[in-house]
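Q: For a teaching handout, I want to show students what a protein-ligand complex looks like in token form. Below are the inputs, and the small molecule is BES. Please produce the holo structure.
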Amino acid sequence: MDIRFVTAGGGDVLAVMASEGGQLSASAQSVDAAGGGRLSKAMGAARFTGGAGSVLDLLAPEGVDYARVLVIGVGKAETADGMAVERWAGHAIRRVLTSGAEKLVLQPDALPGVSKAEAGAHAALGARLASYRFDAYRTKLKPDQTPSLKSVEIVMEAPAPARARADKDAALAEGVFFARDLVNEPSNVLYPASFAERLRDLETLGVEVDIIEPATMEKLGMGALLGVAQGSANPARLVAMSWNGARTKGTRPLALVGKGVTFDTGGISIKPAAGMEEMKGDMGGAAAVAGAMKAIALRKAKANVVGVVALVENMPGANAQRPGDIVTTMSGQTIEVLNTDAEGRLILADAVWYAQDKFNPTAVIDLATLTGAVIVALGHEHAGLYCNDDDLAHAITIAANAEGEAVWRMPLGAGYDKMIDSPTADMKNISGKPAAGSIVGAQFIKRFIKDGVHWAHIDIAGTAWKPGPYEDPLSPSWATGYGVRLLNRLVANKFEE
Ligand code: BES
Ligand code: MN
Ligand code: ZN
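A: Here is the structure, written as tokens, with BES included.
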């Protein structure tokens, strides 16, 4: 979709802003005046309060050259932030995308905490994110299910600063869409080898892409990763994506590591049938890392960032690993696999070790749809954050809040670590107790983080996709692309020169 900034707009539909208390924004007031007060009149008649996401839909109002005017609320003006403007634009897109209208004009205004230029840029990003579709397999879309909207104009008196920001944000949206596409794809299409091939495409953006196959994993001693993969007819891949944007030679990189289980049946510890189809999204961590690498490369970030994703399919079968098997990791540590469904931590054990061994990063951040337990703890509102460094945890939280991808910090501790001691191997992959499941998962990964390396684990099991039909205007498909914005912002805030 074509999004541009203009000083004066024209089209089929106009969207203006209002805030809580039924307060029209400055430019909305001019529209109201031009229409002889019709907007205010309609607001009164419809109990429109300007609450966040509330929409007043006016058809062909007199005195205004639009077939439709949408007054959309941003909530309380004092607390409305950039994300509120994004959702404002998102609601406009949701209303008109398949409505038959081809051209939408957005009229954002400054808010107490958002400058006009920021409002313009956020409106553009919100419009972009809300226009996402995953229609690749829908061959019978009816006309009224097909997007009609072709272009969006954003009206600003001085568009230049907003335009500059929006260009970077367009790179970010590309990264988010890449992640969403990967998570939405079914597992017969997206398996480790085909996933790796899609990552290969990042080479055209200047990303170095190294695809490691099982024979090399064998040589490197990645017994935990290979143990998970051995039950599947689709062999594993480990992909390292390097973006070297730092000007200073030899800057140690930030390493992003992603869990990429392209389908998780649970293996021999098989999952129940109901809802198992959701496990096509068990590569959401890898998708977030891939999307972040794409955004970082597209906007030519002045930072060194390496993305490492472990790609496997967790299947039962004649060759599958059994509960009780003991595997030796690349780190040399051994693991007793008591439950083959706790596979994410097994592949991450080798992936985070590889990332540290090969790239000597200053910090490692892993993202994974690791545990159902994090959903019990935090639902679908926050991802779980586990971190061995307060500064990094703080920086991640700031980035997360700024981008509307909330995290909640959870504890780590020696008592939780003890829960995975094994009498037979160095550790076991589950505690066996129905307690602190998401923390235990984090403690397991921590055993593969070298001394002195700052590390964060983000459990995105509750946020990588949406449960049922709940409405986020910025994330219209099942997959959310969660993590791309957070990581991109973190790199911009903390890792760029
Ligand atoms: N991929 C799942 C976790 C998951 C569950 C993600 C629901 C998204 C939604 C993971 O591999 C898993 O199966 N974890 C087990 C761990 C248990 C065996 C210790 C779980 O959460 O039940
Ligand atoms: Mn599992
Ligand atoms: Zn899994």
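A: Two things your students might notice: The two ends are 33 Å apart (CA to CA). Residues 252 and 360 are 6 Å apart (CA to CA).
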